[in-house]
């Protein structure tokens, strides 16, 4: 793993306790420079709460990097897909990313005002997208025909990336879509060729190298540009 030039001085991660299908936001864990906060990205109050918590910790320094990582998937082929599934996946994988980003914008703007150039050293939004979102690669990846709602929601997320990249450029805030690789996670399953720890150095190195040229791009975990 190549050493990172930008080591964050504070890390925030979020998670939820899910009881009987209901997400609850009840705890905060703090250890050294890492904070584990509770957030349900489809709940407006939960988003407000987590933004306030982060704001209290970072103060005037703002937030340098927001990673919109939360996502859900269900198997839904053309025969299986329903309006309800489409809307549920769209809410979590697309609408939530835009609302979370809007809520964190004041903190991202604060950080951007304190630096120059473009990238994670200043202010950046990383939207976790997927190869499944690529319209040009639909025929090359027929396995994704089984996940209509997921791939459509991620394609819409890619449009959010493009809009934010254009809209926030003048604020010095960069935005990209990132495909993390097919990974062995709850979502990726155990057929995935890579473990999370194999992809992380690549993902961090891509984030480390982001600059103005990459604003609004769709990259994979190795830094390769993916077709929209
Ligand atoms: N794994 C892959 O091969 C792969 C490939 C391409 C793209 N991606 C993308 O990478 C990202 C991470 O995926 P993953 O593989 O790590 O999936 P995962 O193992 O299923 O994890 C998804 C994460 O999203 C969180 N989440 C879901 N709904 C949420 C909500 N309403 N509020 C807050 N958090 C919520 C989950 O929290 P809980 O655990 O609390 O439910 C979980 O931590 C996703 O955006 C996914 O689409 C993954």
TrEMBL record:
One of its GO terms (cellular component) is cytoplasm. Belongs to the short-chain dehydrogenases/reductases (SDR) family. InterPro entries: Fungal_SecMetab_SDRs, NAD(P)-bd_dom_sf, SDR_fam. This is C-factor. Pfam families: adh_short. Residues 1-21 form the signal peptide. Keywords: NADP, Oxidoreductase, Signal. It comes from Athene cunicularia (Burrowing owl). One of its GO terms (molecular function) is oxidoreductase activity. The gene is LOC113487760. The keyword Transcription regulation does not apply. The keyword Signal applies. PANTHER family: NADB-LER2, SHORT-CHAIN DEHYDROGENASE/REDUCTASE.
């Amino acid at each position: 793993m190549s050493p990172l030039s930008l080591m964050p001085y504070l890390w925030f991660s979020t998670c939820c306790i899910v009881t009987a299908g209901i997400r609850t936001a009840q705890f905060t864990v703090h250890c050294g420079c890492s904070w584990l906060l509770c957030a349900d990205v489809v709940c407006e109050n939960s988003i407000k709460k987590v933004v306030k918590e982060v704001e209290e910790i970072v103060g005037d320094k703002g937030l340098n990097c927001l990673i919109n990582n939360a996502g859900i998937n269900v198997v839904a082929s053309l025969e299986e897909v329903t309006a309800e599934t489409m809307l549920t996946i769209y809410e979590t994988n697309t609408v939530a990313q835009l609302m979370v980003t809007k809520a964190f914008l004041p903190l991202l703007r604060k950080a951007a005002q304190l630096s120059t150039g473009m990238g994670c050293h200043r202010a950046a939004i990383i939207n976790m997208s997927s190869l499944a979102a690529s319209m040009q690669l639909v025929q090359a990846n027929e396995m994704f025909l089984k996940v209509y709602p997921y791939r459509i929601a991620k394609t819409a997320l890619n449009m959010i990336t493009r809009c934010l990249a254009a809209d926030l450029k003048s604020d010095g805030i960069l935005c990209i879509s990132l495909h993390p690789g097919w990974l062995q996670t709850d979502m990726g399953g155990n057929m995935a060729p890579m473990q999370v720890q194999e992809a992380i150095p690549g993902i961090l190195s891509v984030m480390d190298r982001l600059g103005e040229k990459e604003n609004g791009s769709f990259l994979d975990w190795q830094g390769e540009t993916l077709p929209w």
